Amino acid sequence: MSSIEEKQQEVVEEFAFFDDWMSKYEYIIDLGKNLPVIDEDKKTEDYRIKGCQSQVWLDASLNDEGLVDFKADSDAVITKGIISLLIRVLSGHKPQDITKADLHFIEEIGLREHLSPTRSNGLLSMVKKMKTYGLAFDHQTK
Amino acid sequence: MSTTTTDTYKKASLGERVRPDFPILEREMNGQPMVFLDSAASSQKPQAVIDSISHYYTHTHANVHRGLYQLSQEATNLHEEARIKARDFLNARSEREIIFTRGTTEGINLVAHCLSLCHFKEGDEIVLSEMEHHSNIVPWQMVAERLNLKIKVIPVTDEGELDMEAYDHLLNERTALVSIVQVSNTLGTINPVDSIVSKAKKRNIPVLIDGAQSTPHMAVDVQKMQADFFVCSSHKMLGPTGFGLLYGKEEWLDRFPPYQGGGEMIRSVSFEKTTYNELPFKFEAGTPHIAGAVGTTVAMEYMEKLGFSAIEKHEKDLLDYGTAKLSQIDGLRIVGQAKNKAGVISFLVDGTHPSDVGMLLDKFGIAVRTGHHCTEPLMTRYGIPGTVRASFSVYNTLEDIDRLYESLQKAVKMLR
User: What ipTM was predicted for this assembly?
Assistant: First the structure.
């Protein structure tokens, strides 16, 4: 199982193949379309991260091995594609590793604008929420 | 429209002629020549406005209304020239009826605050409409909560027009104010303000008209309109940010208590008793946005020089061309199809989310607005998450719309 850092490297290497923004975004859109959807009963206010432009729902659970599984969804497909990258990097790791992860890959693949506070698409809040889940599960297991 | 007609159009268009006056339109966005279609949020500024502000700070700046020295008097003259200009621009009776504000939002808050102190009483009703901007909802809700007032809402039809019959039924002896937008920022609908005001006037009900989106596009005559209050923002009408106008009938403004306390708005101050300055200064506490006033004068002059009939015609051409062109895109639905419309096209494309469309258009160098446009109740009315909105100003051209059309086609193809 690769570490969070190794997974970030993988993503960065993958994105290095794209030489224009269109192919990069087409890939993100594909990822968005293929992200396993969250259960309909989880698409409620409790799981919703409200952004100004698009909505994001996030659910997390701790599996038997003490690793965190994230599931998420959005009504906007580009947001969903970026979510899918975040889940790929952070899901399946120990709570404390998630909490302290430095997510530098977003910037390196040129998607930093999507996590800027002014974008208000819920992604920045989603990253914060993922880390909060990490923290909460960390406390729970202690 | 045939290609030949389009070409002649393009050559003659106002947009082509005034474009060089707006230096920012030369810039690129994401490596592409920028197409700016978000003027309903804030318009760009002509060089003359930018120069006037820079010239003011370089040569004429001093605090106004205070200094006996020449520089302060020159600054005061420039500042007060804006008031005279605004009086004529809105056709107010007197410059005493023109209050400088930070913008439309502050204008509405000022009126709401003052009416709450001298006019509204428990059980009164305020009539708004479903297409109001949050700025024309929230200040009234805040007052309504404090004084136990009711908010009544004029519904919007499927086409995006006000249901005028419903309006008639909402007016009654408890109605204490009608506050309506003249042009919808989301739908582009031009509301029949003359008839809205006259119906309220028959019952002696005061009316506020939100002119944030109308002043950039059409000549406004507050006397003809007969509204008691009219508010607008300079930054949407080619002027600087942080500056706006509140027109209020003198009899109301005289009755109003002051809004904020401080310098400028007083006649004399002692710890026992303070007396207030006369109109309009009673409502202008603190050092005003002098540079904002200077830039606004030039913006108003600039628009008058172009002429509102030419501006209206040009924007109508853009709207008609844009509507016809965008309607060719498969699955595109225009939200807001009022008969009388300003240069705004709000739309959704089947199988796409507005924010995805907006993100891709940005990559193509096209600046549009996406989301609820600060009109959440209207989005709820239509049951949609938001729209993509292209809005036009004097400097837009048919080529801008062609670029939007081509980029939108590509974006939709990527997303579906």
Answer: 0.88
